[in-house]
Amino acid sequence: MSERRIPVMIPQLGEEEARAAADAVLSGWVAQGPRVARFEGEFAATVGAEHGVAVSSCTTALHLALLVLDVGPGDEVIVPSLSFIATANAVRYVGATPVFADVDLATGNLTVDTVDAVRTARTRAVIAVHQGGVPVDVAALRAATDAWGVALVEDAACAAGTTAYGRPVGAGATIAAWSFHPRKVITTGEGGMLTTDNPDWASRLRRLREHGMNVSAADRHASAQPVLESYLETAYNYRMTDIQAAVGLVQLGRLAGLVAQRRELAGRYHQLLSGIDGLVPVRDPAYGQTNYQSFWVLLTPKFGAGRDDVLAELAAAGVSARRGIMAAHLEPAYADLTTTPLPVTEQLTRESLILPLHHALTEDDQDHIVAVLRKAGRK
After folding, report:
1. Cα angle 342, 345, 351; round to 5
2. What's the pTM value of the predicted model, to 2 decimals?
3. What mean pLDDT, rounded, does the chain reach?
């Protein structure tokens, strides 16, 4: 067993984030407040949306997105099985039924054809995941869902800094959900965001995250006069704290540089991995650029070694890789659902793995990782 340890991901956090968090603590305002409002505005502007609504996670963002779309019992929502299980879970939170669609082999994303193959008269929405930061073909999918009269929710959990058709992912989205988990390109520890151009939805989303109150706690505390709030509907406590938002504002300022660095490292991976028979690395689609939130490789039968054996060899050499994206339809939680065949999803979840990619990754680290892969493939 190697003493060397190369982690799969390290969030880039430093003194500036620590000072921002400390300033929030020392201000006395640590719950949702002015820093959250600023983070919402700056994040929305960065991704090309009119409104941002900060929440506690991307999972809660997806839940609220479906609520403002009035999706509920009796409705179906098409989702990729190839996604973290939270994507499908959010559909069940509102009492609707998730319907799993297959994905494109190169991008890991839904396409118009895979969605259309499982669409029914009960389909109310599609949740399209920009998987691992690889952009969905949003132009094609938006055109199709508009023609079908079906809402399109973009699960952009991994996609901050990704572009499609020359615009940031999020620009032009009906509604998009984002994550700031430490595995993402920018982080607030935990936390999420909704972005939309619809002002009515944004107002309702702000109520839904804060118990349904008609006036926020921040506005009540800022008022010089007593404010008697009312509760307009049954809602939730899905708020982000000002401490998290303070960190998020610093991270947002780093976004462009982080994406540029990740793309440079990914480019070097592509050079090093070229010529390895049966190994197919993720790449930009023709219509956009990924932020490389995850750098995955597909190990086809020509590679000569199975994914799990390769993960074991990497671990023995001190490399912390991960299996590829999970397939929710294969998990016990969804064993009760009948699904159409999902051959591409099952191939990707069975044959892919995620390699380390982060700001602290050195050229020597990459050389070592690729050498282990080459050796594994020769066996």
Report:
1. 130
2. 0.95
3. 95
